[in-house]
Amino acid sequence: MSIRLIVGLGNPGPEYEQTRHNAGFWLVDQYPVNLAPDKNFKALVGKTRIAGQDVWLMEPQTFMNRSGQSVGAICRFYKITPDQVLVVHDELDMLPGVAKLKKGGSSGGHNGLKDITAALGTQDYWRLRIGIGHPRSLNLNQNVADFVLHRPRREEQSLIEESIADSLQAIPLMVEGKTAEAMMQLHSPKKT
Predict the structure, then answer these.
(1) How far apart are CA 3 and CA 178, in angstroms?
(2) Nearest-angstrom CA–CA distance, 138 and 108
(3) Catalytic status, residue 21
(4) 65 annotated ligand binder
(5) Is the pTM of this model over 0.85?
(6) Structural domain of residue 157, as residue ranges?
(7) Whole-number Å distance between alpha carbons of 6 and 127
(8) 111 is in an annotated binding site
(9) Is residue 192 part of a domain?
(10) β-bridge partners, 55
(11) Is residue 140 assigned to a domain?
């Protein structure tokens, strides 16, 4: 099954633009597509071609914990099945510079994923997890909610940008339905 929808998770508004929680938006923003507001989906939406296929790009504008409203609406309208959805989100349990693909599984406490799972009625959609680190793993004295709503330090930002660039190389394989190859490419240690 190939990917027909890439959803970047984040929070709308300039005050959140540079925060760790917006890592999903950061990836979608790398595509040279003008995302337009769509009130039916409560999201910024655009279409692009990846690996010769039409793929929808979406940034829900509902705030993170209501992302399922947007994802559910576009999936119903365009008859996109959960296994054709790739949700890109920040991941506390991975260090900056790490990105991993997985299908299904729990939300890991991520409110955006919880809401998408509820809207789709299943956990069986693809996730592209962009590591942002955890305040404890980065030796920061911050609670998680405060941490994700702040800007990464400069060295963390450059590592996150590297993992986004690596992810963008793997996404065409996902679109072609070559999920095992995409995972191998993204999860393999980098050659220096």
Answers:
(1) 10
(2) 19
(3) yes
(4) yes
(5) yes
(6) 5-187
(7) 10
(8) yes
(9) no
(10) 48
(11) yes
Which is the catalytic residue, given 21, 89, 134, 187?
A: 21
The CATH number for 108's domain is: 3.40.50.1470
154: its two tokens? 């400069």
Q: How many domains does the chain have?
A: 1
Local confidence pLDDT in tens for the 192 residues of the chain: 799 999 999 999 999 999 999 999 999 999 999 999 999 999 999 999 999 999 999 999 999 999 999 999 999 999 999 999 999 999 999 999 999 999 999 888 899 999 999 999 999 999 999 999 998 888 888 898 899 999 999 999 999 999 999 999 999 999 999 999 999 999 987 765
SS (H, E, C) 54-115: EEEEEEECCCHHHHHHHHHHHHHHHCCCHHHEEEEEEECCCCCCCEEEEECCCCCCCHHHHH
What residues pair up with 45 in beta bridges, in sequence order? Answer: 36, 58
